[in-house]
Amino acid sequence: xxxxxLSVREKAVLGELLQPPIxxxxxxxxxxxxSSPQYSTLIxxxxxxRYVMLMNGSRQITELNVPGDFVDLHSLMMSPMxxxxxxxxxxxxxxxxxxxxxxxxxxxxHLTRLLWMDTLIDAAxxxxxxxxxxxxxxxxxxxxxxCELYLRLEIVHRAGRGxxxxxxxxxxxxxxxxxxxxxxxxxxxxxxxxxxxKWTGRAIEICDWDDLVRQAEFDPTYLRLTRAxx
Length: 230
Fold this sequence. Notes:
The structure is a single chain. Helix content is 41%, strand content 22%. The two termini are 12 Å apart.
């Protein structure tokens, strides 16, 4: 792990908590808003998103989830859920019953701290997205999202050498960035014209990382990527 180390025994403990993988079709809820799940879900493959649905049917995505994310650890302590989690692509997931997670918090202090840290990083991501929605320009908002996703995917070996895949439609990006699809399209065009990215379908190549970071005013501190054992 980039942030900390797990012992062989701790890896075995985590493995025993997880049920066999299942496949969730794209567009299906992994967790329904206002539900009370009895398990938390680890994404093994695919992209998912936390969202809040308003009464008028509009949706705001509040975080994107990538492989390696526990998407609903919150449900262990906060039930019913105040948000939902949807599979944006076909997702392979493994569920961990809350009963086992509760036992873990009583017997495995190091693993408990790591899971706690996971929820703290979630909160940090939300703060950055709120700052982006309130203060960043549309182009800076998109640039910031690309920087964040690249580093998160790099941790789990799904990105490297400036390249990553982002299998999300512009409609989904609009829900992420709080923009119209037209505005998302224009923002992508601006990043391309500035030669910061090459964006073809789902394939993205970051041509100038330093300039993209400057455009986004991106500070990765909130992702806690340094080795600092808890």
